[in-house]
Amino acid sequence: LSLTILDEFAENIKTLSPAERSVFVLYAQDHNAKEIAEILCLSINTIKTHTKRVYTKLNVTSREELLLYVNMLNEIGNKI
Length: 80
Description:
Layout: H1 5-13, H2 18-28, H3 33-40, H4 44-58, H5 63-75
Helix pairs in contact: 2-4, 3-4
């Protein structure tokens, strides 16, 4: 049985490091990079680095795409 893109996305969330996961969760809560930097007390460059890694691991290319998958998971009751 092949995994759907959504199943793959959900599985890939498990591969995020704790720092990447923090950034991912804040994006999922609809924060932008600048807000995330302030919340986590990190530089915007550090957030950009984490964001690139999150996008790579989750196979997305934008915050919009990331939020699309997060919202789809929420709709089927699969909480992040």
